[in-house]
Write a structure and sequence with these properties.
It holds the Pfam family 2-thiour_desulf. It contains twelve helices and eight strands. By secondary structure, the chain is an alpha/beta fold.
């Protein structure tokens, strides 16, 4: 596992800085202390950075869900144009940071990613919007993994986001090495089981794309591969899909392990499938056999180590 620090954008308040409208912070210890061991954070607070003071009057989104206005709650001052101008300039600057992910503050009218309230002319809020900065970020950087800190409390959403961040970093480092077509085939081979665990359809599409590598202009080929590869990982690695991959791995030991050993693995896989044990349990036994019988192809598979083991993301039932 590569261990160079990975640049990730983050809402400044989540790191414990007192930049909120009420002069407080929203420190998230998992974001700062746990993920901070692996991520090199680029903090962003759109409201402070666009020139608003701390503390300041609270704001909310009003009007059309697709094109809301950013207005203060009591005095009804409209800060939309100020925020949009800041956002345009900030996104251009962030292009230079080479980010591999972004963690946003939920519910924020500037930085909320999902289900941000947008109020109609009757003062009724509907949870259908995105913060002005967060929404623009996603449009500007469609391939960069994004998530809200609140959703990271869900173990499945958490693992999916972290898998995607590490994959994005892996891909960008791969591109930086000016890879050949042969290098692309090797990259795809290493990612095969991980892709199968997230989207078999994308796995097959990438296989076809790689097989036709010589027929496409290089820039078009690598661009299409990036889009499909990162899109594939937005689909969650479910218990069912992981079970299929575990069975696939077991198939490499037909001539090596005894019938009893095979049944032992299958028993653990079944228990995982029934959600009685976490994924790490059958994976540990399979890793034992991979090393014992020196399965070179499997040793190279990113599926075995898609993120640091210390995060224990596969230890949850």
């Amino acid at each position: 596992m590569l261990m160079t620090q990975i640049k990730v954008g983050v809402s400044t308040c989540l790191l414990g800085q007192e930049v909120r409208y009420d002069g407080q912070h929203k420190l998230d210890r998992f974001v700062r202390d746990v993920l901070g061991e692996y991520f090199d954070y680029v903090p962003v607070c759109p409201e402070v950075e666009c020139g608003l003071p701390t503390p300041r009057e609270a704001m909310r989104l009003v009007g059309d869900v697709e094109n809301p206005r950013l207005v203060t709650n009591k005095t009804h001052m409209d800060h939309t144009e100020r925020m949009l101008e800041y956002t345009k300039n900030k996104l251009e600057k962030l292009e230079e940071e080479n980010l591999h992910g972004f963690i946003f503050k939920k519910d924020s009218p500037s930085s909320g990613l999902y289900r941000v309230k947008v109020y109609n002319d009757k003062g009724v809020g509907e949870k259908k919007g995105s913060g002005l900065f967060a929404g623009a970020f996603v449009k500007h950087f469609p391939n960069i993994p994004v998530e809200e800190e609140g959703r990271l409390n869900d173990p499945h959403l958490r693992e999916n986001f972290i898998v995607r961040v590490f994959a994005h970093h892996r891909w960008k480092e791969f591109l930086a090495g000016e890879p050949s077509l042969g290098d692309l085939v090797e990259f795809h081979t290493r990612e095969k089981l991980l892709l199968m665990a997230h989207s078999v359809e994308h796995y097959r599409s990438l296989g076809k794309l790689t097989a036709q590598a010589g027929d496409l202009p290089r820039e078009e080929l690598f661009s299409k591969f990036e889009e499909l590869f990162l899109e594939a990982l937005t689909f969650h690695a479910t218990v069912k899909k992981n079970t299929n991959v575990l069975h696939h791995i077991l198939g490499y030991f037909k001539e090596d392990i005894s019938a009893w050993e095979k049944q032992e693995v299958l028993g653990l896989v079944d228990r995982y499938h029934e959600k009685q044990v976490p994924l790490i349990v059958p994976m540990t036994l399979l890793n034992h056999f991979i090393n014992k019988y020196d399965k070179t192809y499997l040793k190279k598979q990113r599926y075995l180590n898609p993120h640091p083991k210390e995060l224990m993301l596969r230890n949850k039932v």
